[in-house]
Design brief:
The complex is a heterodimer of chains A (about 475) and B (about 375). Helices cover about 75% and strands about 0% of the residues of chain A. Chain A is built from 20 helices and no strands. Chain A is globular and about 65 Å long. Chain B is an alpha/beta fold. Chain B has helices spanning about 5-35, 35-40, 60-65, 70-75, 100, 110-115, 140-150, 175-180, 180-190, 215-235, 280-290, 320-335, 360-380, and strands at about 90-95, 125-130, 155-160, 295-300, 340. The N and C termini of chain B lie far apart (about 90 Å). Classes of the chains: A mainly alpha (about 475), B alpha/beta (about 375). The interface of A and B includes residues 23 and 240 of A.
Chain lengths: ~475, ~375
């Protein structure tokens, strides 16, 4: 996000209060505008409008499946969606001249998604729940296309041939990683019969609330709708809180993170670094660790601050993660909403399933399997590549080891607790050890291939 | 939901008022204190990270861990020349344009680096250490500024490479490094009455002395310090393409002089000493001489076509270049300068993208040819 985009969002969040009786609709319209306006674009292509339109269609499709009975407001909103999508396609056609070629696939997608809900009777919840699973698979497939370069190349080639316009691989779908997880959360809760009634306005707003489009957080729909229902006012405290949070975020992102970027690990820097740069390699690792934290948490602060100005408190995503004394605590304070998502929808169900299997007696193995697979999936969420698998495995093994250590050091821990000085010393050492474990793990995250990872790891020991 | 408009409006008004006042106050303090001057004497180079072996210049900062940092105090402070001079060191500085700086060469391939690898030693046993203070700009005014700022670092000898295109009085000033030192340039012009067709240039405005006006320079200072880590880690300060195409031998069949601005020739069809900025060269050599430092002036190697009847290269027609060489030689003789005309000392197939940039091999070969004249001067200056 640029400073200009952030500035416009702040103005928009404050401007919403002018439409006090229609606040939800005003927020939704702003969010739809942001969805299209923020879509990254290099060379103008049909994707610039097609991808945000596809997001809207997915929202409509999922809501049709899981939402409450359409109200007259919902039906008007559907018309708004169609109008916005048509306008975006029209504007895009001025740049690309390809609007007509992209309309048929969008129309197919639209008809397909809407008809899923229309065909299946609302009373037939079992079938609808099955359909929800199909939606989940579809969303995962879209994520895979987005995050697997080889597959994106194939899709880009097919698209190029079918519409007669060159689509260069590497295109991005703004915020889809977050949007997809919000949609899947709703679909999975619906499938588990944990989803309450939700209208289209609230559902769409939850999915694409404009401050949270580019970098999350991934809220839960029940929390979000509760926030929407809060009787709140725009007072001095709200403005001060919101602007302070935004200011902190801007400082983190544009001063600290962007400055540290000059020192941080990068494929180019590691490749060109001369052997034996022990101290420099460590500086690069530390710089990357803090750069990533300030960058991501800065964006989150900005999103939360704009949310406060708009009257919605988004969930926290970071709570001083580098001050935690073990890896488990770290993951309870780093990208919290994503961790919780995976805990709720993957780790816990998988653990339960394994506990009910023949592995039941091997508790440590079950924990190992569940934690490593969960963390590998979290890694793959960032991109489908070997380095993210390694990063996930590193953390999965770390979590497992911490669990094993905790289980085996109960007696020792009780003795230590009786000595306050030792407790403090161990606390400091634990924080340092946890931070260094995470920091070294960022090498897998930051560097795309094994030779570079190997070079950086060797650099840490002076080779 | 209600908007508490009166409170909100009052808060916004107060915030804006305070922000405006603080903004004005901070800029006023900044204007008076001028902290950038002091900041430019501070650097991480030579302390936290190794000094730069050539002056900061880059067209691709992210790829070369380097950037254009036009403040001469910072340029010199970050250079390895700012390290203490050893007792047995005979300190030589090389100034000049991009051929001395080493465009399309890595830092170990420049003329200064090649000379250092030859381990020259003066007749009294001092180790000759050559420092690359070239800068990719064709302007002897820029060279004079660098020379003056290098004097506190106690050079024993200055090797000053130049070429005709660096001596146009019409093209001396329009460079960042010259603009950044406006006050010093103004003082020099006042003292020496240089003939400079672009003078007077606009002085910095009061806004240029505020935080707003200097925000870019401040950011560049910080970025330059941060690039120190990349420099220390990689030893890279210049992005060199994987393939450097050899110099082409296709010259336009015209006899025009390639220059940004028009030359004013006193005699049509001939370049005389009066047409050149030799007054700036003279001021530089005199300034060094006043401190007991000798200067070796060199007419640097340039591409010279073997096929064209009209032109030497894309910059110079033959009539202009030959008369320039005569003028420079005559002036050097008249003024008693130590001068070497080495314009054709590098074979034509050893130039790269321009008429002045040498291949790595040619850079070292040329450096070897400098060794003896350099040591001869070192002996004579004892």
């Amino acid at each position: 996000m640029t400073l200009l985009a952030i500035g416009l969002m702040i103005i928009a969040a404050l401007g919403v209060w002018v439409f006090r009786t229609q606040r939800r609709i005003a927020l939704l319209i702003l969010s739809i505008i942001a969805l299209y306006a923020l879509q990254p674009s290099g060379t103008p292509t049909v994707l610039d409008s097609a991808l945000p339109t596809a997001t809207l269609l997915l929202i409509v499709g999922v809501w049709w499946l899981v939402g409450s009975e359409p109200t007259p407001v919902d039906r008007k909103l559907l018309l708004l969606f169609v109008g916005v999508a048509s306008l975006a396609a029209l504007i895009n056609s001025l740049n690309s001249g390809q609007v007509l070629t992209v309309l048929p696939p969008i129309a197919v997608l639209a008809i397909g998604t809407v008809s899923v809900g229309a065909i299946v009777p609302r009373t037939d919840s079992a079938v609808r729940r099955q359909m929800g699973l199909i939606f989940v698979v579809l969303i995962i497939l879209l994520l895979v296309i987005l995050k697997l370069p080889a597959l994106q190349t194939v899709v880009s080639g097919s698209l190029s041939r079918s519409i007669g316009q060159t689509i260069i691989p590497g295109w991005q779908w703004l915020g889809f990683s977050y949007i997809a997880f919000r949609l899947m959360h709703v679909l999975l809760d619906y499938r588990n019969q944990r989803l309450g009634a939700v209208n289209l306005t609230d559902f769409a707003l939850y999915t694409i609330f404009f401050p949270a489009i580019p970098a999350g957080p991934i809220d839960r729909i029940e929390h979000f709708t509760r926030e929407l229902d809060q009787p709140i006012t725009l007072d001095a405290d709200r403005i001060i809180n919101g602007l302070t949070r935004i200011g902190i975020g801007l400082f983190k992102k544009f001063v600290l993170a962007d400055t540290l970027a000059y020192l941080a690990l990068s494929p180019q820097l590691v490749e060109q670094t001369r052997p034996g740069s022990f101290l420099i390699t460590w500086i690069m690792v530390y710089a990357y660790a803090f750069r990533l934290f300030f960058d991501f948490s800065g964006y989150t602060d900005i999103a939360i601050g704009i949310g406060i100005l708009a009257g919605i408190k988004l969930p926290e995503n970071f709570t001083s993660p580098y001050t935690k004394r073990n890896i488990s605590a770290f993951w309870n304070s780093w990208h919290i909403t994503l961790s919780l998502w995976f805990r709720n929808y993957f780790f816990t169900p998988l653990s339960r399933a394994l506990m009910g299997s023949s592995l039941r007696s091997q508790r440590l193995l079950i924990i190992l399997l569940a934690q490593v697979s969960t963390m590998i999936l979290i890694g793959l969420w960032h991109g489908i590549a070997l380095n993210f698998v390694l990063w996930g495995a590193w953390h999965g093994l770390g979590l497992w080891f911490h669990r094993w250590l905790t289980d085996h050091t109960h007696a020792w821990d009780e003795r230590v607790q009786a000595q306050p000085r030792l407790v403090s010393a161990i606390h400091v050492l634990s924080v340092l050890a946890t931070f260094h474990f995470v920091a070294v793990g960022w090498i897998f995250f930051a560097l795309p291939d094994l030779p570079l990872i190997g070079k950086a790891l060797m650099g840490l020991v002076g080779h | 939901m209600e908007i508490q408009q009166s409170n909100g409006a009052k808060l916004v008004r107060n915030v804006l008022l305070k922000a405006t006042l603080l903004f004005i106050l901070f800029n006023a303090i900044y204007y008076v204190v001028q902290p950038l001057k002091g900041l430019n004497r501070l650097t991480v180079y030579n302390t936290l990270v190794p000094g730069r072996v050539r002056l900061p210049f880059s067209e691709y900062p992210a790829d070369s861990y380097n950037l254009i940092m036009p403040d001469l105090d910072q340029m010199l402070a970050s250079h390895e020349i700012a390290r203490p001079k050893a007792d047995d060191e005979y300190r030589v500085i090389m100034i000049g344009d991009s051929s001395v700086w080493g465009y399309l060469l890595d830092p170990t391939q420049t003329q200064a680096a090649c000379l250092n690898r030859l381990n020259p030693t003066t007749s009294d046993g001092r180790k000759v250490r050559v420092y690359n203070l070239g800068y990719p700009t064709l302007s002897v005014m820029k060279d004079l500024l660098i020379l003056r700022h290098a004097l506190p670092y106690k050079p024993d000898l200055i090797v000053w490479s130049t070429t005709l295109a660096s001596l146009y009085p019409s093209d001396q000033l329009d460079f960042e490094v010259v603009h950044a030192d406006y006050d010093e340039v103004a003082a020099l012009v006042d003292q020496y009455k240089f003939k400079l067709y672009q003078w007077p240039v606009s002085p910095p405005t009061w806004v240029d002395r505020t935080l707003i006006g200097q925000r870019r320079a401040l950011a560049d200072w910080l970025r330059y310090q941060l690039y120190g880590l990349g420099w220390a880690a990689t030893g890279i300060d210049h992005q060199i393409p994987k393939f450097v195409t050899p110099h082409a031998d296709t010259l336009q069949p015209d006899d025009g002089l390639l220059t940004v601005n028009l030359m004013h020739l006193t005699t049509p069809g001939k370049i005389s000493a009066e047409d050149l900025s030799l007054d700036i060269v003279k001021a530089g050599i005199q300034t060094a001489h006043d401190q007991g430092i000798l200067t070796l002036l060199i007419n640097e190697p340039t591409y010279h076509s073997t096929t064209s009847e009209i032109r030497v290269n894309s910059y110079y027609p033959k009539w202009a270049y030959n008369s320039y060489r005569d003028a420079l030689r005559d002036t050097a003789t008249r003024e008693g300068w130590h001068y070497a005309d080495l314009w054709d000392s590098v074979p034509v197939d050893q130039f790269t993208d321009t008429d002045f940039h040498l291949t790595p091999a040619a850079s070292c070969t040329f450096a070897a040819t400098l060794r003896d004249p350099l040591l001869a001067l070192a002996t004579s200056s004892r």
